[in-house]
Design goal:
Largest sheet: none
Order of helices and strands: HHHHHHHHHHHH
Shape: globular
Helix content: 55-70%
Number of helices: 12
Number of strands: 0
């Protein structure tokens, strides 16, 4: 019961945080309704831990979206939300199975994705709306039972058993398209960091789109994205908006590299999971 209340409290904090998606950093507040007397010996340690964590985040308001995402992907936070399990093996020798992708950090990253799309500008409105709807759909199911749906695997497996995973409004599709949108975002950030030819932002966005979203878009979605590319802002403006408080371009480059290293394994796990359920090839109109 306490675990369920904790999950609900974290998810509610995620949805009510300020700044259009930064609420994920309020997840670790007190658990409402905790039974008195059960944890008398632990409360002091827990309070000290929370106090240290709060002190370490005094300057969080000045963090960039990239640094916030790195924080969400820290091994300690992922282990916490995965329950610390190492898997029971994949059936092929002694190789342990990868832990299932956790739901709450994935939702937090999805909210940060919205903020990055906002920085590109209104030209990303169509993609942003899709991301927002997918977040809401996934979040709604998660809040119904945070303990039960603590991993994305549990959510997808539920719909596969019910025969609803391939429906247009399924959470399985939401997971798939959110992961693909993150593929696009990390591809764009890496191209921004690696490019030495000073290509325009529109060219970088198009290149990232070609390798991430376009293979799964039908002609209607592809046509909409093609039109949107004509309205992309200047590269320098976008880069400046990605910077955190007091951050320079060199620090931004380092953070992009670190984010890519942390995010790619999570996305690979999600795509592998979707392939396991034969849902990885789904396309839009």
């Amino acid at each position: 019961m306490v675990e369920r209340e904790r999950g609900e409290g974290e998810a509610i904090a995620l949805t009510t945080g300020g700044g259009g998606g930064g609420g994920q950093l309020q997840q670790d507040g007190a658990v409402p309704g905790a039974a008195e007397g059960e944890r008398d010996g632990e409360e002091g340690d827990a309070e000290d831990g929370e106090r240290e964590e709060e002190e370490g985040r005094d300057d969080v308001d000045g963090w960039s979206e990239i640094r916030l995402a790195i924080e969400e992907l820290s091994p300690a936070r992922l282990i916490k939300h995965r329950g610390g399990g190492d898997g029971d093996g994949d059936g092929d020798g002694d190789t342990p199975a990868a832990p299932p992708p956790p739901t709450l950090p994935f939702l937090a990253l999805s909210h940060l994705l919205l903020r990055v799309l906002d920085k590109i500008g209104p030209t990303m409105a169509v993609l942003r709306l899709d991301v927002q709807r997918n977040i809401e759909r996934l979040q709604e199911l998660y809040l119904m039972d945070p303990a039960k749906y603590s991993t994305l695997t549990e959510i997808v497996e539920k719909e596969v058993k019910e025969g609803t995973a391939r429906k247009v409004d399924s959470c399985a599709r939401a997971v798939l398209w959110l992961a693909r949108s993150m593929d696009f975002t990390i591809a764009l950030l890496q191209k921004l960091e690696e490019d030495t030819d000073e290509q325009s932002l529109a060219q970088l966005v198009e290149a990232a789109y070609e390798v991430s979203l376009k293979p799964w878009h039908g002609w209607i979605s592809s046509a909409a994205c093609k039109i949107a590319l004509k309205l992309i802002p200047e590269r320098k403006i976008f880069s400046s908006l990605l910077l955190g408080m007091g951050q320079d371009c060199s620090a931004l480059k380092d953070e992009i590299e670190k984010l890519a290293l942390l995010l790619r394994p999570l996305l690979d796990d999600i795509h592998s999971m979707m392939a396991k359920f034969r849902l990885d090839r789904l396309k839009s109109t």
